[in-house]
């Protein structure tokens, strides 16, 4: 089989909204440039995601030089300008991490509060923001725990072959999608190179109820698919269900669609104890 290639690059400027497909991207310590640099919180600063507010996946963003332009069903278009952000920093909570984040502005808070029918605030990973994560030395965005997620198209096909209703890659929200490799080949990769960037695959990605949210209608699958099917062949001894691989970038650089995925080193792929074909 020929070498794997990079076929999709996706960034998610605001945590849990619809991804933006890119032809090329700059990779930084925090992951892809702009990836999850914004987070929505409740009034106490606790983060909000599509796990509880599934309609967030219907919010579309366009990246501009000055900020973002947002659209969502039933809402007027919203322009976000970095220049209008407040100078106020507040601690926000993403999982167990406390992060000093820059409050955006009241207009953005109001827009999301109206859309979600829930009082909320929006914060940005500003110049003075810092988030330290155990075992990761670099700056991290509002991502769950790691800066990048990779999945192969072959792995999605292997899952869809087991499903009555196929799902799209968008439900798993990867940053990097690769093709021309065997299904779950990425389980055994350790260090890879794409474009200018060397990456290390640090752990499989454990999956949650968010994967059951349909990216087209924002509705959660009543049968908890595809999570229920994944559980049958991708659940480990720790009872977590894994699909996709978490990466860190070992240097900054650029990547683009069509780049070769060079496998620098491999590792032993995890074993899933309840494998059911």
Automatic annotation (TrEMBL):
Per its UniProt record, what InterPro entries does this chain match?
MoCF_Sase_C, MOCOS_middle, Pyrv_Knase-like_insert_dom_sf
Q: Which domain of life is it from?
A: Bacteria
* Xref: SUPFAM superfamilies: MOSC N-terminal domain-like (SSF141673), PK beta-barrel domain-like (SSF50800)
Q: Per UniProt, what is one Pfam family of this protein?
A: MOSC_N
PROSITE patterns, alphabetically?
A: MOSC
- Do you know which PANTHER family this protein is assigned to? MITOCHONDRIAL AMIDOXIME REDUCING COMPONENT 1 (PTHR14237:SF19), MOLYBDOPTERIN COFACTOR SULFURASE MOSC (PTHR14237)
This chain belongs to the protein called: MOSC domain-containing protein
Taxon lineage: Bacteria, Pseudomonadati, Pseudomonadota, Gammaproteobacteria, Alteromonadales
